[in-house]
């Protein structure tokens, strides 16, 4: 399983009893990974998070279990009672054809001195 790194954005599903719920029960909350615990055979991947509610208020959650992006534990599982997070699954980025063909210095403005604009060379002082 892919474990997120510090600073990664993840989706967080809070525990039913945590008091941190969205008005829409099926809506995930945004979170940023603050710490990644070392994985072992005995323990699944776990992280510490800064979770944001629908109003942008931040809350700390510790030792949150990471599940695969397509996985959602059943309603009576330990994870749904404790809360869990998953990596955000993003579609591949499509680069527009015009952007791919743009020159490397596109958008760079070249400036000339007053002497060069007048047709002469800049004088050394």
Structure explained in plain terms:
This protein has about 120 residues and is α+β, with helices and mostly antiparallel strands. The chain has helices spanning about 80, 95-100, 115; strands spanning about 10-15, 30-35, 45-50, 60-65, 85. The N and C termini lie far apart (about 65 Å).
Binned, the helix content reads 10-25%
What does the overall shape look like? elongated
Mean pLDDT comes to 75
First-residue to last-residue Cα separation: 65 Å
- Report the portion of residues in β strands: 25-35%
Radius of gyration: 25 Å
- Helices, by number, come to 3
Please tally the β strands and state the result: 5
Strand/helix succession: EEEEHEHH
Structural class by secondary-structure content: alpha+beta
Largest sheet geometry: 5 strands, mixed, barrel
Q: Which strand order do you get reading across the main beta sheet?
A: 1-2-3-4-5
